[in-house]
Amino acid sequence: MMKKYSLIVLMIVLSGCSAKLNESLAPTLDALLQTQGVSSQVRESVAKVNAATVKSMEDITTPQQEYYIGRSVSANLFGRYRVYNNPKALAYINKIGVLLTYQSDLPDVYGGYHFMILDSDEINAFAAPGGFIFVTRGMLRCAQNEDEVAAILAHEISHVTNRHGMRSIKSSRWTGLGTLLVAESVKSYSNANLVNLVSSFEGGVHDVINTMVVSGYSRSYELEADKSAYALLERTGYNPQSLAQMLRVMKTRLKPGAKDFASSHPSADDRINELKDTTESVAPPSQRTQRFRKQLANI
Amino acid sequence: MSVRIFSLLLFFFMGEISLVASSVMSIQVKQAVVKSAPSFLSSTVITLFYGNQVTVIEENGDWSEVKIATKKGWIHNSALSAVKLSLNAGTSRAASGVSSSEVMMAGKGFGSAVEAQYRRENPTIRFDLVDQMEKSLVLPESVRVFAADGKLKQ
Question: What ipTM, to 2 d.p.?
Fold first, then answer.
């Protein structure tokens, strides 16, 4: 009887806690119940009740989990696009990208930020969770100077720092994962749990790929990424007006109906209008212009 | 009975309070650099790895001044977790004598074991190119020079 009361009180306490708190305390709760001689069957039930309050990505993801989702999303993307083999151009965009991440709100991701050029004429760019960023040759050809390359990368980095990829994963997958995570505090993964985990993982990877490549992020996420990118360019010393300038150039080059940036993003006019930045971009210092021409001249 | 329940709840909340208030933090990324000043472009004091622990001396915006043995330096808060992290799940927990209540295990949830199974089920997906992508490392010193040459903020 005493144990039952203790159990009920603890469950009430947990129900009053935030979902994040519940997740972090699940192992503590399990250990506590164990000391009270509560059977493993009941402890698992408590774990399930606790897990049921885990409803969103924020409740349970860690940088490490974002990294593994990002790796698989990237591996899938490489099945759709070829890699552009140009070490100098690659080193150049990686330096611009990493410099930008130093000023971002999330400079330390689990495996670090990495940038890749895709060998495609499409005007497109992608950001997978965990800091895997891709830009096509077609997109880089739209850039007229280094600051505009930085604007493209800053927009994609902002998708990572705002965790837009992770947020595109259906909430039902997080609830399933939450249940399994808490269950693991009771016992090691059984084969059935591993199968369920892989199924949630595969579903999550599919959700991110589908959003990134096919349907696109919501208008609000795109505008949020533009706003973050503008601030990031400013903090790094690049001309923030280069973002609007880049959009103006893209507007003239994007083909209606093509499978590219236009199919998965709000219109350039809409985005320029939201940036409220109507001034023309000024040319960057000669040092940046020279190295831009040297590294990306033949892109 | 009420005393017992009260003690139980007190124990429960004290555990949480110590978790939040502790100045000992864990590195939650593969590698993190401790810098001589709160800026990625300052010199590197030491490189730390996932699960390493640091003692936070003070916070300054997004950065924390930390102590590791005899060394001191600055680390960005995004590299730190209040949860104690362990490299290995399952068996090592018992072997190290660390209780599950104070450890968040690496690989829990979507980790290497899940990726390995996903790869077995999807053998044509190009993880080799992801591994290649991850090899592109940019050293902070080269970024500092790049920023200086391009008249960018440092």
Answer: 0.78
